[in-house]
Structure formats: structure tokens, C-alpha cells
Amino acid sequence: IITEACQKNYTLIFTDGFANNLSNGPAVGNVDNVSDAYSGVTPYKDEYSNTLADIAMKYYDTNLRPDLTHDLSPIPSACSQSPVDPSLDCNSSLHMNTYAVGLNATGDIFGVTHHTVADAYATTPNWVEPLQESGAVQADDLYHAVINGRGEMFSATSPDSLKTELKNAVTEILDSASQGGASSVAFNTSTLKSSSVIMTASFNASDWSGELTATRLNATTGDLLGTAWTASSKLDALIPQDRYILTYNGSDGVLFDWANLTTAQKADLNTSPSGTADSNGSARLDYLRGVRTSEGSTYRIRSTVLGDIVHSSPVFVGEPELSYPDQAPFGVDGKFYSSFKASKADRDPVVYVGANDGMLHGFLTSDTATKTAGSEVFAYVPNALYSSSSATEGLHYLTDPGYVHKNYVDGTPIAADVYINSAWKTILIGSLRGGGRGFYALDVTDPADFTSANASSRVLWEFTNSDDASLGYVTGKPVVALMNNGQWAVVFGNGYGGTGTKLFIVYVDAGIDGSWTTSDYTVIDTGATGGLSQPALADLNADGIADRVYAGDVNGNMWVFDVSSSNASQWAVAYKQGNTPKPLFTAKNSAGDIQSITSSPVLAINPNVATINTNKPNILVLFGTGQYLVGGDLSNTETQSFYAVWDKGDKELLRAKLESRTIVNTGNFRTTTGSAVNWDGSGTTQNGWYMDFNLAADPGERVVLSPNVRSDTVFFNTLIPEAEACSAGGRGFLMSVNLADGLTPTNAVFDTNNDGVIDDSDSAYSGQLINNIPMDSGFLGDGQYTPTNVGTVEKRVIDIGETSRTGRLSWIEMENN
Questions:
Q1: Cα–Cα dist 379/377, whole Å
Q2: Does 577 map to a domain?
Q3: Which of 59, 275, 327, 786 is deepest in the core (most CB within 10 A)?
């Protein structure tokens, strides 16, 4: 029964493939020879009518419930590529897919020259009339039917193989309906080139497998082309013993081999599904490395060794790209950044991503002399994941046949170049997000050093709640910067589930000795509760050193931290009332409801006024409000907002002193309207602008992702949660407004008429609807690439004029131009 407009519908046929009656079928005609978007071409078309293949095509190519909303059936993300792979099911209307299990069915084509649907696309079968006589031609008609129905055919020759093939058929059906997308994208180049690819992560909830896909981009238009490689297929082809996998023993990195594990780590892997100790730890370790021989009989069955990638976004590490000056404190003569940059210009490019198989993975993004693009060259198992405290904790649980999904390495890593121990290094820092309360730090300076001999020095440290109990589950990304005390540091909020609302500044070189003391990191306590979100850092005098930190909390406070002193003991919350820390601003809607801030702000010099002594630091702090962390957040419809708050040296700024903007929806687009902001001090000076998401048509709209500033435009994505069956969890708007005032840009930013260019025929809008939940957008050339929660990537042409800054910026230099 079809009840929903997005419902997936399947027919699974069991047959020996041979017809008992050749004349009683429905008279549907020669459907697969009709020229339209889904038929009339090879390998579908033939010259015969009323065949089983025609019936399959009829119900594939016919909208099964025309009374319901069209085009809501989910389709693969690759359907957005050009040209489209004809084997994909890109039909977004309600339709039926056909699968078959043939019981010892062999035709003249199927089972002889063709064995899977893919074979028909590689070599078009020579279809013959199947209704003239009973026999092998009916098996071929069945094969033709699953091709037309964009399904698959499986052949069973015995009771045992029937069980296997039935399972294969059901698994493929479940797989096609269980795809999900991760939170962001990565590019292997900073400008569009012939070698450019976009890398997207995804997962399959039917078995919690994962995928990292590299898709080629058109060097001129930026359009998505065909798949360049997939990480799962490359990983599955590796010999498990040949994988370079490291873990941490508390003081050094070690190869992920049984002999190298600590007693506690072995206790984890020696834990059985019942929670008792056994002696199978070495076999479980082999399973985690990728050995498949005991799947099904002893351990959990996997469709691929690569686990699900849900919240971790890929990060690309290629040639060094920053522009640190050749002077202290950025090295010494002979060891300045320019020398490092030149020496590592040709290092192997690698993309890193965390997965819930217990590992961070690193995959090559281009061919080398010995390996092909997509090959895994690095993996890391954090020590913080090991646990033998229960049957459903730790790494052993990943092998349990009764496994229910858990998070492991679920955070997004970041890469940074730092000067520590008298040398420049590229480090990778990542949190476990929901997988644990901790961070890991790795040395990924050169993949040529990914060797057994260098295992100990590839892992720098781990920092967890065992080192400081106030550390919670950190959902945002850390930031790496040189601080005013001369030390490179990892800066992050304490997250959720810890104690207090605190900023952590952890020195990169301090934990390398395997221990943490109070002098190895600095904590700035706001005195509030609830946890601090992802920070943004500002360099106020363009010397490459962080001076100020901004971060929000779940109670709506936007905190400012002054780290401009060379003495770390002087670092503190910037604004106080007496000795009590005070926020720059507290977000509340017009009803007085607290508006949680769960993502990082973006910072910009206020373009409306020049920086003078009376308005320093003259920074616009731009951020959205809303929460999407726990189940109850889905139904919360309290009004959320987007703010641009002017930090000019005053504390506890009021919403009443901000100029409001009104959102107006026009079909799938929207504008923002409002009065000018009074920045100049004549009359009542205003402290910024804001817009409320209070439209009745979009209840619960919120911003839970960090904004982006490109030129004079602010981009941010909104989320509108929905519980309806066909909402894919929700939808949202891709927003772009003027940095200076929050109004609709004067000139069109979006290609509103979808002709591939932005010109006078496009209208100026502040936002456009996207019918799935948009994740963090990536920007390359004139393209905005937005992954969605269903695994697709939406590419939009944008025009923001000339941009003065390119590359990947982990924090912001603030200076007037």
C-alpha cells in the first residue's frame, strides 16, 4: 500500500524463470521501447510487447500515486553528476523497483554471458522474443525485467544458496533506502583545475557502513562529473596485515598489533558479547584490521570494512598553503615557514576522516608511484575508545553480532602547520564528538614517514576528561593558533556533559611526554554552566598571533576572551562587572526565551566604520541560534535568530539596540528587508542587526552551523526540522545577506533562473530553499557545494564579486583595509 509521496516500492520475484503459460499476461504493450527519460534506449528497449520486462518498465516509469506530491522519492547523490550514470535509479517520482531470485534459472544470456545488471550496461544483450516458447528465454526476460526495474537478479542453485541470495536481495533493497550524508565536503585544490575533486562522506544505516567518495569536477563550470574513486572499495582490497594502523599506549604511538597493546587495551578486546572475559582478543583485533573470515559465524557481518561516517567531515592535507613571515616567532633562520613550504610542496596529498569503526582514516587523493588514489595510507585508533567496563562499550563491541550503532571517531579533524621543537610540522587534531570526551593529536607532516620505524612519533598525545574532568563531549572543531606567550596551542570549548562553561587552550608540544600538568594547558572559566561551543579567534594587529577568542554557549551567551597578554595567567573573560565575568551579548527572542548558540561565530571588521580608540576592537560577531543535539530539539519551535553584534568594547549588549530585519518568502526564495543601521553615533547608536526565523510556514527554523564570510556577503544555512515521513528529516534555506546590514544583496548572488550564469536575468534574493537538511557548504570557484542529510550534494552557482582572501583560514586576522 502506497501511503507516502517518498515511499520506496519493491517487487521481489521468486521463480525458476520458466513460464507455465505464455498467453495470459497483461497487455501493457512494448513499454520499454517508448522514448522518454527512463526507457527507449539500450539496454532497456526491445522489439517485443507484453513481456515481463515491459511490465517491470511500466511500473518503474509510471507515477504510482499521481494524486500525491511529485518528485519526493529519494535518489542517489550521483544523479547530480554530469553525465548521469544510466544504471542509477534517478526516478524521483513514486515507482516500483524489481528484484528477482531465480531458482537455478539460466537463460541464453543470464548466467552465460551476463550475470549482474551491471553486465547489461557494459555489453547490451541481444534480446529475443520471450513469449514464443517456454525455456531459457524466460530466464532472460526475468533478467531484462530487473534491468528495466533498476533492481538486481540473484541466482540460487541449492537451499543454502537460496538463503544466501535471498539475504543478498533483501540487503540490496535495504541499502537503497538507508543512505545518509555526513556534515561537510573537502576539495583537493583551492581553485578549479582539471585535477579538482570534491570529497564527500556518507553512511548506510542498514548496516552502519560508510563511504568516502571523490567526484571529479568540471574545470570550467565546477559541475560534478563521474566518480574518481571510493574509499570502501580500495580499503576492502587491502590485505589487512598490510594496513598502517596506529594506536596510543599512553606515551607513544604504536602499531595496532596485539603484542603492542597495553593490558587495559587487551582487556577490552578480550571482552565477549556477554561482557565476560575470554581469550579472543587477537581475533577481534584482526577483525578490526579488516579480516572477514569469521563474519557471520562469530563476528558481526560487514558489507565493507569502512564504518559509517556520520558527523566527521573530510579534511584535505596537501602542499602547505599559509603565508607566515620569515621572522621570529615563526621559526629561525634556515627553518622559516617558506623553507618548510618549499620542502613539502610535493608531499603525497591525503584526505583524513573519522569513522565509527573506531578509526581515523587517511586516504590518498592522487596516484603515487606505488599506490592509486583512494588507497588508505594511515589509520589511527584512539586510546580513549578502549573500554572493558561493559559488553556494549569499547572496541570489542564493534565485533558483536548484536551490535547497535554507537559513535567512536565521530568528530571532524582539522589540520594546521605549527612550529614546535625547533621544526615546522603539520598536525592533525580531532575530537571524538559523541564517541568520547577527548582529543587526539597526530603528526602528519609527510606521508613518507608513515612507517613502522616512525610509529612512536606519529602520535603526539591524547587529552581526555581523565586529564581534566570539566571536558565534555565536544561537537565543534578545535582551532590551532600561535598564542601571545609564544606557544602554539589547540583552542576549544569544553563542550557538553562536562562541568562549567570553559575555554581550553592546550599547548601542542606539552603532552608529547605522555603526561599533563596544569602548566601544559590554560583554562578560562566563565563561571556559567552548560558548556562552551566552538570558538573563533581574532588577530587584532595582523602579527599572526591570536589576541581574542569568541564562543557561545547553550544559554545564549556570546563570550569574549582576552588572550592578548604575553603572560597566560592574565588571560581572562574580556568583560566583567567587578570580578564577575560578563558576556558580550545574551541571545533571547522577543518572548524572552533563551536562544542556544551551538556553533562557531564568524568574525569580520565592521565595514561600516573605521577602527578608532573608542570602538576597538570594532569586530562584527556573526552567529545563529538554535540547537539540534538531542531528541527533544526536533519539536522545539521557539523563535531562533541570526545576529551580527558589534564588539566595540562594551559588555552585555542588548537586543533592543540591534536593528531588526524581516524575512519575506517568495516561493522557493526569500528576501530580507529593514531600515538602515545607525553606526555613527548620531542619535541612538545601534550595535548591529538581527533577523528572526518566525515565519509560520517554517516553524522551528534555526542555525546550527557556522556562517561563512565571502567578500562582503555572509553565507549561512538554516535548518527546519520536520517529522513528516517524506521530509527526509527536514529542509532549510541557503542564506546570503550583506555583511554590513543583513539586507538582500544589491546584485544577484544566486543563479535564480538555473541557466548556469548569474546576470541581469537573475533576481536578487537573500535565500533559496533546499528540500533536504543542508550541512556545511564548501566553496570553490563560483560554486557553493552543500551536502545534505540524504547523501546528495547540491551545487549552486554564486556570484560574490572579487574576493581578497583564499585558502583555508582557521582563524581571522583583523585589520582595516
A1: 7
A2: no
A3: 786
Q: How far apart, in Å, are the Cα atoms of 648 and each of 543, 584, 619?
A: 21, 10, 7
pLDDT tens per residue across span 48-104: 999 999 999 999 999 998 887 777 777 776 777 777 788 889 998 899 999 998 888
Do residues 355 and 306 make contact, with C-beta atoms less than 8 angstroms apart?
yes
| Residue from 663, 665, 666, 789 nearest 719 by CA | 789
Q: For residues 89 and 87, what is the distance between their CA atoms, to the nearest angstrom?
A: 7
The residues, any chain, with a CB within 8 Å of residue 813's CB and separated by 6 or more, are 538, 539, 542, 544
Contact in structure between 429 and 444 (CB atoms under 8 Å):
no
Report the domain count for the chain.
2
pLDDT tens, position by position, 392-409: 899 999 999 999 899 999
* Interatomic CA distance for residues 603 and 586, integer angstroms: 17
Sheet containing strand 502-507, edge to edge, reads: 479-482, 488-493, 502-507, 521-525
The answer to whether the beta carbons of residues 243 and 389 sit under 8 Å apart is no
Whether residue 272 lies inside any domain: the answer is yes
CA 450, 453, 454, 459 dihedral sign is positive
Contact 222, 751 (CB under 8 A): no
Write out the residue range of the structural domain in which residue 361 sits.
230-464
- 362 and 458 fall within a common domain: yes
Measured from the Cβ of residue 114, the count of other Cβ atoms closer than 10 Å reads 21
CB 552 within 8 A of CB 561: no
Which residues make beta-bridge pairs with 423?
Answer: 420
Position 24 in a domain: yes
Decide: helix, strand or coil at residue 221. Answer: coil
Task: Identify the H or E element spanning 151.
Answer: none
β-bridge mates for residue 663, sequence order: 672
Are 172 and 132 in contact, with CB atoms under 8 Å apart?
A: no
State the pTM of this model. 0.85
